[in-house]
Design goal:
Layout (H helix, E strand, L loop, with lengths): L7 E3 L1 H7 L1 H19 L9 E6 L6 E5 L4 E6 L3 H6 L2 H20 L6 H13 L4 E10 L4 E9 L4 E9 L7 E8 L3 H4 L7 E2 L3 E5 L5 E6 H5 L6 E2 L8 H13 L9
Parallel strand pairs: 1-2, 2-4
Antiparallel strand pairs: 3-4, 5-6, 6-7, 7-8, 9-10, 10-11, 11-12
Helix pairs in contact: 2-5, 4-5
Length: about 260
């Protein structure tokens, strides 16, 4: 059994005040990517360490045997968080994760030092979690489009960089999709980019296409994202659902509304 997830949550009242769970999600996701590479084998009693902040005066830890989860609760200083600058909040996020992991390590064997190294690397990366998504070659046009993902405390972005053949620097590019910083909003984006004669189609894992990149615009060095139309415009429910999800993929504020 391997350690797979290290989610951090908080009391509902805290999240309502400051959207805390959204703001720290990028760290949780980064640690998940690190754990996939680390492949740390546990003692067989757990595969997740769940850290909850707030609601306690001193740290507590217990094992949920049925769910195979180590539950850690640690105090939360809301005043410190609320009054802190963004950089100070980043530091506080790191402290909270380290404290939670340290408490867990005193209860069961965990890869504490390796996870601290992961957190340090995220700090060196300016608190931005990045990973490659898909490379698409359009040989007939001499173009290559590299899609990559970026997850921060404010949002998730699917970004495209467009290269001409044999040129190492992109000549245009931009954001294709932007969502709230939680995988529930972006995990359904499909790596199956649809290549047509005149466009690249971006779809979900349910084969619903929401956006496309006109190839002629890319050739001209103009990065343009166009919206698709519903496949069944006569169906009111389908149309409303289509536009709802399309809007979710073009999140345009930092207030998490």
């Amino acid at each position: 059994m391997f350690l797979r997830y290290i989610p951090m949550t908080c009391e509902t009242s805290i999240h309502r005040k400051c959207h805390f769970v959204y703001h720290i999600y990028f760290i949780r996701y980064y640690l998940h990517l690190c754990l996939k590479k680390l492949k740390f084998e546990t003692d067989g009693t757990y595969n997740m360490i769940a850290i909850e902040v707030g609601g306690v005066i001193s740290p507590t830890v217990k094992l949920e045997e049925f769910f195979k989860v180590i539950n850690v609760s640690i105090p939360f200083d809301f005043e410190r968080y609320e009054k802190g600058t963004q950089q100070q909040r980043y530091s506080y996020y790191m402290e909270l994760f380290e404290e939670g992991l340290t408490v867990a390590s005193e209860f069961r064997p965990v890869p504490l030092e390796e996870l601290k190294d992961c957190l340090k690397q995220l700090e060196e990366d300016n608190f931005v979690c990045r990973w490659n998504f898909k490379n698409v070659s359009i040989k007939e046009l001499g173009l290559k489009v590299k899609f990559h993902c970026q997850l921060t405390t404010y949002d998730f972005k699917l970004i495209a960089d467009v290269y001409r053949k044999r040129e190492p620097i992109p000549f245009c590019g931009g954001t294709v999709i932007r969502t709230k910083p939680d995988s529930i909003h972006f995990n359904h984006i499909s790596r199956n980019i649809i290549i047509r004669d005149n466009s690249l189609g971006i779809q979900t894992k349910w084969n619903e296409e929401y956006f496309y990149l006109p190839l002629q615009c890319l050739l001209n060095g103009k990065f343009t994202v166009e919206k698709c139309q519903p496949r069944r415009p006569e169906d009111k429910n389908d149309t409303e659902t289509f536009y709802h999800f399309q809007r979710r993929l073009q999140y345009d504020n930092d207030e998490f509304r």
